[in-house]
Design a protein that fits this description.
This protein is 15% helix and 36% strand. It is globular, with a radius of gyration of 23 Å. It is an alpha+beta fold. It has 2 helices and 13 strands, in the order αββββαβββββββββ.
């Protein structure tokens, strides 16, 4: 009999919790927790608006080891740059063109875009492939224009690699949310091979990664 009362009590608690969760709207605001924001330098000596008219983002899938972590076969392609170059030649990458229509008349179908920032997230601007997060890829950002000319064959190129994400899930019985604890990586300006460490970990505000000309 005592066991019966315990079962009834447990069912009562479960029912109350279910009723509570049914009326509770989870607003985690965590869709961009892992996102990296890249901001072009538009200060003195930096990019001008027309240069950011056409920006190309490329995504290259990294090989994964048995634990699902990115790896390179260093005896074949010893660096991330060599690996991406090989995929470039093979045409094996994903590409998104960000066309900002700077200097053109805005229309209903072609609004004027003036932002100087591009965002790389797990599911944007590229579609997420299964459970793979952005840290299982390397990326290239190409600026295709300069004042008065199109840099189609020789764009300004920046490589984003060595990305690492740390996060955790938290919440109550009704809502489980995600928060990022650390997001780091490396930005390489490919024309002069200069490397800048990335630490985009947020502490209450977005930490844009500057891209200098």
């Amino acid at each position: 009999m005592a066991g019966m009362f315990r079962l009834i009590a447990m069912l009562g608690v479960a029912g109350a919790l279910a009723g509570c969760c049914a009326n509770n709207v989870c607003d985690c605001n965590d869709a961009r927790a892992d996102a990296f924001y890249f901001k072009f330098d538009t200060g003195t000596g930096g990019f001008v608006a027309t240069e950011l008219d056409t920006v190309v983002l490329k995504r290259y899938a990294l090989r994964l080891d048995a634990k699902g972590l990115p790896t390179l076969i260093k005896t074949v392609l010893p660096t991330y740059t060599a690996y991406a170059d090989s995929l470039d030649k093979a045409g094996t990458f994903d590409q998104v063109n960000v066309v900002r229509n700077v200097g053109l008349s805005a229309t209903a179908t072609r609004p004027r875009v003036t932002t100087d920032t591009v965002v790389i997230n797990n599911n944007a601007p590229f579609t997420q492939a299964g459970p793979r997060k952005l840290s299982t890829y390397l990326y290239r950002i190409e600026v295709r224009r300069a004042p008065g000319q199109l840099l189609r064959d020789n764009p300004r190129r920046y490589q984003v690699d060595s990305l690492a994400l740390t996060g955790e899930f938290y919440g109550t019985g009704c809502c489980t949310c995600y928060r990022n604890l650390s997001k780091t990586g490396r930005l390489t300006k490919l024309d002069d091979k200069s490397v800048t460490p990335i630490n985009a970990t947020e502490n209450g505000r977005v930490m844009p990664v500057p891209i200098k000309k």
